[in-house]
Specification:
Layout (H helix, E strand, L loop, with lengths): L16 H15 L5 H15 L9 H19 L5 H13 L7 H7 L13 H7 L3 H7 L5 H12 L10 H20 L29 H22 L15 H9 L6 H8 L5 E4 L6 H9 L4 E5 L2 H14 L5 E4 L15 H12 L5 E5 L14 H8 L2 E5 L6 H16 L3 E6 L4 H9 L9 E4 L11 E4 L5 H8 L3 E5 L3 H12 L5 E4 L5 H16 L5 E5 L13 E5 L3 H8 L15 E4 L15 H11 L9 H11 L2 H4 L3 H15 L8 H9 L2 E7 H6 L1 H11 L6 H12 L3 E5 L9 E7 L2 E6 L1 E6 L4 E10 L7
Parallel strand pairs: 1-6, 1-7, 2-4, 2-5, 3-4, 5-6, 8-13, 9-11, 9-12, 10-11, 12-13, 14-17
Antiparallel strand pairs: 14-15, 16-17, 18-19
């Protein structure tokens, strides 16, 4: 009989095409004014694509096997230099055998239209495939294959899909005799087929509670991630309908590097020359704002596959646009939780084109990807499905921008992930305004040693112009002084908490009309509006006024103000804030342009707060010696080194958090983490709840109901679902939970829809879209007009 790889379900929507068309037409007809041009275009294009759908030819199992092996082969033709012959052979073997188990009769009754469905439950095909492998035969076919190599191959095949193993040896043998042996013989065309449930004893890990687990050392795990990750990469690529796992490699032509050199007329800056000359090395460089570090990092990547990581989505968007537009490099991808719509800009309007680009970005197929670190570093949790990240970084150049901006938890994940990548011979560049000694300490502790495993250079003294003069005050803000400055200068005020920023905005609003507010407690639509407004304000030389913000502007927005008023914070955040003022060093600094107010706002107390109190105190005390003085880039590095002195920090929560999380990653076992939500929450260290203010809910109730109607309709394309969920996200905001959500006053614990984890809140929300002014969401005031209680 003919054996198939999967059911012919690539166009399931055909069955429900009328339902899909009707619900989307209703959305367009009734909510067109609420959809932007890009969203409308996507939906209309998708409706057009529904008219042209045809049932595609069903792939046979043999064709699928051939396709994935060819995909792997084409990949190794380009990236052969990154892998040993044994590694290539193990991956190719995994591609050849991973779906053998599909040649069982029960599976074929599901995917083969010529067979009647049976009620019999099946054993997952990955398990059957792995138990069909002969260790003796594998070792004969792959030179140098060891017992560990076979275990890695076996485990990659066994768990290439994340399936629960609740089977005994007897279950396997009974199933083999009844539903698999005969058909495997027929598929392979031979009588002598192998099947051994004892293979399970050689698995690296198991989710079967009756199995005895073995201890897996780090080198073995890293090699396993390579095999499993590449198997998943090629399998997912082919299953998505693509022939090649990598697009438009720039290794040979190095087009982006050439364009950057042309842009600088081949007069590269010192940092850029250094990075270009050390493209074969791991590097850690201190590079102040204005030193051309983005281009330096791209020159270091040298046309090889690369990932440029940043702390926040808005900064990722800016770098992506810079590479795509300034350097006309179209083979760059953007990847974060809100990046879908970017793949429909600049296309000819076809839904299929944008859909393809987004899917290929998620498969890490582009030569260069700009992303947030959480898109890559989850492999440190040893969770099923995360191996593709480590495997891809094995043959890529990884750029980490502004490592000092991350929380201790993320720093630990980055350091541990880099130690694993070093074992896999991946390459990294850390390019940062400051590099605290405590980071070097932990890197050394985890086998990342300066001058052995990476080259370190400090370019802080290459900036010829001093940009900042500081003044330190042990008091609250001087609102009259800020308001007066706002009449003739661009004034940035940074507060440590949202509540404080709202109070400062209220005080300043009583003194001047030219004051605006930006923080995280606006719905996303309004926050995007404010981010654009503050950047336009920064770029307009004629405008003066005041912007009150929180730390969200520290490392995300490319803004430049004349003077900075800021609450004191820890040294790393303080230097980031300074980078938003006099960035080019062209403004007068006869008088202090960075005014720092020490009031202990946001300091940790009883486990609550933003800033470690010990580091805050050190930051204040060590800053005193620069009070009233010019604060050079070299001074900043020395200041950071003193504040983050290892011996002085060992008893702080900051140091202990990094230490504790690094130890946790080292002791983690496979399957300790399996939930994506648990990984996300642990990685970011923040739990949150998504809310929609009642006023916004009432204004958009029909839109919400129309979108949920689409989401409730079966077989609607997944990317249409994503774009509509993103539309809902535009009118929501995330509230961080520092305690049990049941204690969050003013928030309805029931979701607005069973499919959506969105909650209504009667807390007061204040914003005027016409003027861009308003307090955002208050945590202490209620909106009586829209109160749902």
């Amino acid at each position: 009989m003919e054996y198939y790889a999967k059911s012919n379900d690539t166009k399931k929507e055909v069955k429900n095409v009328n339902d899909i068309r009707n619900i989307l037409i209703y959305l367009l007809d009734n909510q067109m004014d609420k959809l932007n041009e890009n969203e409308s275009k996507m939906i209309i294009s998708y409706l057009d694509s529904l008219k042209q759908q045809t049932v595609q030819e069903q792939k046979t199992l043999r064709e699928h096997e051939k396709d994935i092996v060819n995909c792997a082969g084409k990949f190794f033709e380009i990236f052969y230099m990154y892998f040993t012959e044994k590694e290539k052979n193990l991956v190719l073997e995994a591609c050849r055998v991973h779906d053998l188990g599909k040649a069982n009769y029960i599976f074929q009754t599901i995917v083969n239209p010529g067979l009647a469905r049976m009620a019999e439950s099946q054993i997952p095909h990955g398990f059957l495939s792995a138990l069909s492998l002969s260790e003796k035969q594998i070792k004969q076919e792959i030179p140098g294959c060891t017992d560990d190599d076979f275990s890695m191959l076996l485990t990659a095949v066994y768990y290439h899909h994340d399936r629960k193993d609740s089977f005994s040896d007897r279950n396997f043998y009974d199933y083999y005799d009844k539903w698999y042996k005969k058909y495997l013989q027929e598929y392979l065309g031979k009588e002598d087929v192998k099947f051994s449930a004892a293979n399970r004893n050689q698995l690296l890990y198991s989710n079967n509670p009756t199995m005895k687990l073995r201890s897996v050392d780090e080198p073995t795990w890293c090699e396993y991630m390579l095999i499993k990750g590449l198997l998943n990469k090629f399998d997912w690529t082919v299953s998505a309908g693509y022939e090649e796992a990598e697009l438009h490699s720039d290794i040979a032509e190095k087009k982006l590097c050439s364009t950057i050199r042309d842009y600088f007329s081949n007069s590269l800056r010192e940092l850029q020359v250094f990075m270009q000359e050390h493209s074969d090395d791991n590097v850690v460089v201190i590079a102040p704002t204005g030193s051309g570090k983005t281009e330096a990092a791209l020159l270091w990547a040298n046309g090889e596959k690369g990932f440029y990581t940043l702390p926040l989505k808005v900064s990722s968007n800016a770098i992506y646009s810079r590479i795509k537009d300034r350097y006309m490099y179209k083979d760059v991808a953007l990847l974060h939780s809100d990046s879908l719509s970017s793949y429909f800009d600049g296309t000819d309007g076809k839904f299929t084109d944008g859909n393809t680009r987004y899917e290929q970005a998620k498969l890490f197929s582009y030569p260069l990807t700009v992303c947030t670190v959480d898109q890559l570093f989850k492999f440190v949790y040893k969770a099923p499905g995360t191996e593709i990240f480590a495997a891809t970084l094995k043959y890529s150049k990884l750029i980490i921008d502004e490592i000092q901006s991350y929380s201790p938890k993320i720093v630990a994940a980055l350091i541990y992930g880099l130690s694993e990548l070093k074992q896999m011979e991946g390459k990294f560049a850390i390019i940062t305004a400051t590099f605290p000694p405590v980071l070097e300490f932990f890197m050394r502790k985890y086998r990342l040693i300066k001058d052995r495993d990476y080259i370190f250079r400090d370019f802080s003294d290459t900036m010829g112009t001093d940009r900042h003069k500081i003044a330190l005050f042990h008091e609250e803000f001087d609102f009259d002084r800020i308001a007066e400055d706002g009449y003739k200068k661009k004034v940035l005020v940074i507060c440590n908490t949202v509540s404080k920023a709202q109070k400062v905005y209220e005080e300043l609003s009583q003194r001047t009309d030219e004051v605006f507010l930006l923080h995280s407690r606006y719905i996303r639509k309004h926050r995007n509006q404010l981010e654009k407004m503050i950047m336009d304000f920064s770029d307009n030389d004629e405008m003066t006024g005041i912007w009150v913000t929180t730390q969200i502007v520290e490392a995300s927005l490319d803004i430049d103000f004349d003077v900075l008023y800021t609450e004191m914070c820890t040294a790393d955040s303080l230097l980031q804030r300074m980078g938003r003022c006099n960035r080019a060093g062209k403004k007068d600094i006869t008088d202090a342009n960075v005014l720092i107010y020490v009031n202990y706002s946001g300091c940790m107390k009883n486990g609550k707060g933003i800033y470690d109190s010990d580091i805050y105190d050190r930051s204040v005390r060590l800053l005193e010696e620069y009070n009233g003085m010019l604060f050079s880039e070299k001074d900043k590095v020395q200041y950071m080194n003193k504040v983050y002195d290892v011996d002085a920090l060992k008893n702080t929560a900051y140091f202990q958090t990094i230490k504790r999380n690094l130890a946790k990653f080292k002791s983690l076992q496979p399957l300790d983490y399996t939930s994506k939500k648990d990984i996300d929450e642990d990685f970011r260290g923040i739990k949150s709840i998504t809310v929609i203010p009642d006023r916004i809910y009432q204004e958009n109730q029909e839109l919400i109901e129309a979108i949920t109607g689409v989401l409730d309709t079966p077989y609607v394309d997944s990317n249409i679902r994503r774009i509509l969920k993103a539309k809902l996200a535009d009118i929501t905001l995330n509230l961080n939970l520092y305690s049990d959500r049941r204690k969050l006053d003013g928030v309805d614990l029931n979701c607005i829809n069973d499919r959506l984890d969105i909650h209504r809140t009667c807390l007061l929300y204040d914003f005027d879209e016409m003027t861009g002014r308003g307090m955002g969401l208050s945590l202490t005031k209620y909106d009586d007009e829209w109160n749902f209680i």
